[in-house]
Amino acid sequence: MTHITIPTTPFDGQRPGTSGLRKKVSVFQQPHYLENFVQALFDVLPETAGLTLVLGGDGRYYNRVAIQTILRMAAAKGYARVLVGQGGILSTPAVSAVIRRHGASGGIVLSASHNPGGPDGDFGIKYNVGNGGPAPEKLTDAVFERSKVLTNISTVDTADISLETEGSQLLAGMEVVVIDPVADYAAVMRELFDFEAIRRLFAGGFRLRFDAMCAVGGPYAQALLEGELGAPAGTVVNGTPLEDFGGLHPDPNPVNAQDLIAHLLAEDAPDMGAASDGDADRNMIVGRKFVVSPSDSLAVIAAHATLVPGYRGGIAGVARSMPTSTAVDRVAKAQNIPCFETPTGWKFFGNLMDAGRVTLCGEESYGTGSSHVREKDGLWAVLFWLNLIAATGKSVEALVRGLWADYGRCVYSRHDYEGIATAQADALMRELRASLPSLAGRAIEGLPIAFADDFSYTDPVDGSVSHKQGVRVVMEDGSRVVFRLSGTGTEGATLRVYLERHEPDIARHDIPAQEALQPLIALAETVAQIRAFTGMDRPSVTT
Ligand code: G16
Known about the structure:
The chain folds into 3 domains: 2-181, Alpha-D-Glucose-1,6-Bisphosphate, Chain A, domain 3, CATH 3.40.120.10; 185-407, Alpha-D-Glucose-1,6-Bisphosphate, subunit A, domain 3 (Alpha-D-Glucose-1,6-Bisphosphate, Chain A, domain 3); 409-542, Alpha-D-phosphohexomutase, C-terminal domain (TATA-Binding Protein). Helix content is 34%, strand content 25%.
């Protein structure tokens, strides 16, 4: 074995987005592409020698190749120890749990989250810091700057090592510990939830269908739900992680998890349905013939948190991303706890959690979580719902209707326009931003506009400021439309239009969302000229 230095030339555009660097697999397969990013990361980390790194991914195509490459580079960099999930597998929340429980200096997650996988799909890499959460912008910016100028990659000349059996081995003097991907995560879940009550729920005949979408959530759901909590075999479907996710698009929403929705609409539907995404940090909750919006899910969890052992002492506060509905704000107000509105991106919650200011947080993009780790956590949300159902004896639908009865319904929808030429998407946002000063005080499509702005956020903990985090047009009654471009796509640009209107009248809670939101939809078209800029006359995905 020898240490080797490989000359390289920087690649364009290795700027990590909201969740690290995500690109087509074919981009990552270019010689030295992955190595460039990893070297840039290792170069800017303040310390690596003698430390412990966590490494794992969602099992998608290229995961195994990338893991061997990173192990060799970590050895060259002088890490003392790398904890790798068996078979290279670790879900994103599990990486966070392992970093925290083992006091590791950080971890590398290999995933493109909910983006499709396989040789023609996407791959991704991101770094999580010592608190278990995604790297802050300061660090990802430094990685990007470094990636533009680095000229050498340091690695070692060794063969691949086996990741199939748990245990310790040496790689060029560095210890590689292959760990059970589920154990640490399961231990955290046992500390939070009333497993006895959930066991009784299943023993009493409660039926759950958990669709892991052939992604990394499967082994976790199988071990906990079927293995430990007594859910019948077959509760977890699509439970084996496949390199191409079996051709599924592992994004747990009603459009991509159609099969789950069909089962929950059927006459013999189970009591509850749930799905998780590629790296198991997102979740969707479905009742019998009843789909729960992620914003409502967060609000229900917050409203009943003290029924769950890990939260019995109360919650310090809640946080949601700006485009997420204000349902949780209403719960927080009633409980007299703070509610923070952050930009989109899980990393913004980390500071608030580390400072003890929030316990629960969530996003409209099917992410919910708490301070037990520093990532959103799909299975955690499912266990939370199971615990609430066990504790209250109420169905999924009854819990949501209870929320609406107490606080009114925040009618909500997101319209996505995918695959827009980047120049067109940028032009749309530019024009929209330019028009903002003229919107306040006007009525458009019969809706009086109170204000329109581009969301800025000052982190209450470290004072850092993030600008241009999404355009919002807010009506006098508080209903609103938000526009932003996705930070997670790999093809062209995606425009997201978020629509929200509060409906206090219980008699109107069953009006379909698209109908209830029609005036806001019309306003969105008028102010942003979506058709003209995108050439599309309807969204590609409506959730
Ligand atoms: C990532 C972040 C989330 C964020 C989402 C936004 O999700 O972790 O916090 O809400 O991106 O996606 P977009 O920019 O496309 O709207 P994930 O699950 O892809 O890591």
